[in-house]
Design goal:
Distance between the termini: 33 Å
Mean pLDDT: 94
Helix content: 25-40%
Order of helices and strands: HEEEEEEHEEEEEEHEEEHEEHHHHHHH
Structural class: alpha+beta
Low-confidence stretches: none
Number of helices: 11
Number of strands: 17
Largest sheet: 7 strands, mixed
Shape: globular
Strand content: 15-25%
């Protein structure tokens, strides 16, 4: 269930390994509209090269001092990605699931599908903390002044002109979409409640005053960050953002879902428990730590948030990678979080402690 990137990727890999698959979605062939970015080293080897729309060798983190992170970043071509995740061998059903059990699904049309494995990849419901953003797409040549020498800007936490520095913080995200276009996006990383896209639009316009930019289109983002507390305990196999593959403190999920599709498909084809493949003990512990990381972010004020990311930017790339990308590297995640805690300063450290101990 679910024909987004996660559901379609898993369907594609299941077909590759000889499984019989029914793919259920109300709009199974609707074109994807979102921008999907990821660290280049997160992509699985089976991904075709033509699914990449743009690549950079590094990204800048500005908080407010600039740190160049020497780690490749990729923006996916959503049309090419959707086409590459070929599901022609599946029975594609344009319907909505209304009742889900481990071995059967009842559809809105009253049809019922029975299966050896039922996989729910329908995304998150959206309750609780959310990530929101508003972005403008501009010609690449005009974005040079915003990039200011960078290949891409992952986060620019510089205060928005005219905004009270104590206001809930947001950052500017600047990435090439292809050879001709760049996305300039004001983002609320996590909020409960979050900043509205209209507020982020106002902030983006304030940031861009003085830049001559041609608006080629815009993008609005709003999605939930928290799935089930323990997705590995679900009777139905959960996958993608719904299945705990979204990083709750960053909102990234597509690359993790693409990477997980192959081992999960192999497990299902071998009639093994996919939960055991996705959720060894180390992955469960990392997931809990990342959820604690989200609670910590929500507890920080604007000054503490900027200090936190200024500290994170100074970490070695392998420490950053452990926290951002490695689902099973428990020791690496713990080392990163411990180092951050030690280096962020007393006031921010106190807020982090209260966010965790208050639970």
């Amino acid at each position: 269930m679910g024909a987004g990137p996660a559901g379609r990727a898993l369907t594609h890999r299941l077909l590759t390994h000889g499984c019989t698959v029914a793919l259920v979605d109300p709009r199974p062939v609707a074109p994807w509209q979102a921008t999907y970015g990821c660290w280049t080293d997160e992509l699985p080897e089976w991904m075709p090269a033509d699914t990449i729309a743009a690549e950079t060798n590094s990204v800048d983190l500005r908080s407010p001092d600039t740190v160049v992170v020497e780690r490749g970043y990729t923006v996916l071509d959503v049309d090419a990605l959707q086409a590459a995740l070929d599901v022609d061998g599946a029975e594609v059903i344009a319907d909505r699931a209304i009742a889900v059990q481990p071995d059967r699904v009842t559809l809105r049309s009253d049809a019922q599908i029975t299966a050896g494995v039922v996989i729910d990849a329908r995304g998150l419901s959206g309750r609780g903390p959310r990530q929101t953003a508003f972005g403008r797409i501009v010609p690449r040549a005009q974005a040079v002044s915003v990039l200011d020498g960078a290949e891409a800007v992952l986060m620019d936490w510089t205060a928005v002109p005219g905004l009270d520095r104590a206001a809930p913080p947001s950052f500017l995200y600047v990435i090439p979409l292809d050879d001709e276009r760049v996305l300039l996006e004001e983002t609320c990383l996590a909020g409960d409640p979050p900043l509205s896209p209209s507020e982020l639009r106002t902030r983006l316009d304030a940031r861009l005053v003085g830049h001559t930019l041609t608006d080629l289109g815009d993008e609005t983002v709003s999605f939930g960050l928290l799935g089930q507390h323990s997705p590995w305990r679900s009777d139905v196999t959960l996958f993608g953002a719904r299945g705990g593959l979204m990083h709750p403190a960053t909102g990234y999920s597509v690359a993790a879902s693409l990477r997980a599709a192959e081992p999960v498909a192999i497990a299902i084809a071998a009639q093994e428990d996919p939960h055991r493949t996705m959720w060894p003990r180390s992955a469960r512990q990392v997931y809990r730590l990342r959820r604690a990381g989200l609670r910590s972010l929500l507890a920080l004020d604007a000054t503490q948030t900027r200090r936190f990311f200024a500290t994170f930017a100074q970490l070695p790339v392998d420490r950053q990678r452990a926290y951002l990308s490695e689902r099973e590297d428990l020791s690496g995640v713990m080392r990163t979080m411990t180092q951050l805690f030690a280096e962020v300063g007393g006031g921010t450290r106190g807020a982090l402690m209260r966010s965790v101990l208050g639970r």
